[in-house]
Amino acid sequence: MSQRENAKSARKERASDKEKLKAEKKLAKARIRSERAARAKSKRERSGSTSFIKQLMGSASRSDRSKKAHEEKLKRQKKARAQAGEIASYIGYDAIYKDGIAQVEDGLFSQTIEFSDISYQSARRENQQNIFTVLSSLYNYFGADSCVQLTIANVPIPDEEIGKKRFFKASDPDTEKYAKEYNRILNDKMREGVSNLTRHRYLTYMVGADDVWEAVPKLSRIKGDVIDTLSRIRCEAHALNGTERIEAIQSQLRPKSPFTFDWDKVSPVSNTRTKDLIAPALIDFKPHGRADIFRVDDAYGCVVSIRTFGSMLEDDYLAKIIDLPMPLSVNLHIQPIAQSDALALVKRQLDWMDKEIIDEQMSAMKKGYDYTILPPELRYSKEEAEELLDFLRNKNERLFTYTGLIYTYADTVEALERQVDQIVSIGQGNSLGIEPLYYRQRQALNSVLPLGMNHIDVARYLTTGQIAMQMPFASLELNQEGGGYYGQSKQSGNLVICNRKKLASPMGFVCGKPGSGKSFSVKREITNTVLAYPEDEIIIFDPAGEYGNLIEALGGVNVRLAPDADTALNPFDLSDVEGRADAAQLAFKIDAFLALSSAMMAESSEGLPEADKSIITRCVEAAYSRCADGQGMPTLSDFHEILNGQPEAEARDIALRYERYVTGALSFFNRQSNVGFDNRITNIDLHDLSTNMRVFGMLTALEAVRNRMYANFERGITTWLYIDEVQSLFGHPTIIDYFAKFWAEGRKFNLICTGISQNTSHMLTHERARTMVLNSDFMLLHKQASQDLAAWADMLSLSAAEKEYIDESIKAGEGLLVAGGARVPIRDDFPKGALYDLWNTKPEEIAQLKRAHLFESNAKRGRG
């Protein structure tokens, strides 16, 4: 081909390319016009043209004007607060009332709820999902007219308390030396704690009202709904009263000062306000010329802000910050946005993005580029905005204005800088941008007080799920006032103090393999109870005869049930039960005798036939009727005689089964009771009874305990019952039914019952037994055999991490404490001494101790 022809062909190709480009531009312009027309049509459809719509738009405009006026007023109040020359006037509230309600600003009132910790980080995935769902519903509950502040505060235990705290009073001469030793040991262990911090979780909500009387019903309704919602995840919550709330504020405002507030010092005559009594003597917001820290009295503080999040928000980032062994508080200020406003906001963003996309496409066509290729950041932003719009419309998500603040303090600037660096480092490791607040520490300090008001204009938008993902639950600490010692936290080393009386259902179980520390733990809790509650009564069922030395040391009595013993318990006894309904007592006694009869049928696991139940019921009623004329309580002889008088052959078979308990060597239950429970600690020793007789004896003793429980309830006294080898009561359906009824009734009459077992998989195969476990809020699990571990994992929905706390690899004394919604991994290296010797059950150490005592006594006799 010639050169002229080549040039001609090239011109044709260029002309063809130009025509194609023109056609593409026309198509792009047509597409853009079409998109604009569709958006305009959609906008017209949304806005409408009727007078009714215009009226709504007019009212919305008036609402916007009112909202702007309110915002301007609030800005002026915040500015005045920040510029206050007097310290007390600077503190971010006007008044706090005795019921805990605070007037934060003119027309704004808040209330604070404190809620307990629960096990989240080690929980199973489905349990975590349930907690996330509940917290999402909690945040969605608040309306656009309210403000919410979540505070998690690590408050140091005062220095004067560390090593000097009195856990138990030395009031009884029998137990005084043990109380002193126990206090010394626990104070030593207190020093071993990683942080020696107490952790508080507060949820503060604020509403608008003309005065406090209008605010009270609003806040009361919110309080009830919040507490009910938190109870769904077994989170205990209560509203702080005025004193508690002022203490919570002072713990952040004056962290180094003791709390000495007294309502009697508040006086309108002298114009003394609550905040005058907690105001620091000095606040310097430019110490050493610094603009990112402040000084309050003798402490230096710093508030930093959570500015950015990574692409994936993890649910444990807060936990990692909270678990830092330092005093700090994390505050999340959450302002709900009305759903209509949130949708309009996202749509406006999408409109701007569409405009930017069109501009990008026009620019690309002018430059001859492919207009369908968009910058990645713009494309991703558009996808995120569309996803957010879908969440708000279809997935029960709401939009919030969010401000995250972290406050820490120290004795020196150097120590404070180290703590801030640790916080920032943890944030960086979790893709968080944590930055200082220069020249805004004055506003920041008021923002971290649990008052519900955010004074910092640093915010971003987050959805319900993004906020609920920021879990306020870290490594679980259990430190309940008035409780007993159960070990040290495996994670922090802090003392684990549990008060079973504060649990919704204090019934419970202590389970573990032989040698796992089970008996040691039970004896320790018995000692806790004796020392902590001097008025309570304690009864122990001791099938192995291993509690006798402990009971004697604590001033209790041992009651031995055996064929050669002088003590007797009458199964028919109704002493100490004055004033109880006869019909109810008779019904329970019938259940007891059905269980006793079932205990004698060792060859059958099916329980009693219905005919036998009817005969036993008839004869129990007849026995009480025979003795109703003041002849005392019936005995097994009366019952046996009545059985023999019945026409049915089954009655004679039942009588034959009872015969060995009526005459002969085993007839020691066929007498009137001569065992009293006058001593507050009673150990019922069943060691010398055979296996069948032991169950019979335990059931008979349970009836005596039930009588005592009623009497103690009338006197306002709690009865503690410990049943060792409790699995023996789950051998027959009738016995299980009786024991389950006893367990359920006991909760109503201040009975705290503890079942102790080394073989739980067999026990948990029974439906009634499983129900008893599920209705119990206390479980202390030590090392478990593989079969028992599987049963507990299924029963309590244990996670993989929680199963590791009770598997074969752990040491004696370690385990998992379940107390209500709390699940705490524990360890216990209790030092040797008088208490250790009382609780110790290791055969070799006991033998060594006995040899030492024998040697000492022989030496004394030799000297004599």
UniProtKB/TrEMBL annotation:
Designated name of the protein: Conjugal transfer protein TraE
Compositionally biased residues, Basic and acidic residues: 1-38, 62-74
Species in which this protein is naturally found: Adlercreutzia hattorii
Pfam families assigned to the protein according to its UniProt record, in alphabetical order: DUF87 (PF01935)
NCBIfam families: conju_CD1110
Biased composition (Polar residues): 48-61
Start and end residues of each Helicase HerA central domain: 510-575
InterPro entries named among the record's database cross-references: HerA_central, P-loop_NTPase, T4SS_component
PANTHER family found in the cross-reference section: SLR6007 PROTEIN (PTHR30121:SF6), UNCHARACTERIZED PROTEIN YJGR-RELATED (PTHR30121)
Ranges for region Disordered: 1-80
SUPFAM superfamilies, per the entry: P-loop containing nucleoside triphosphate hydrolases (SSF52540)
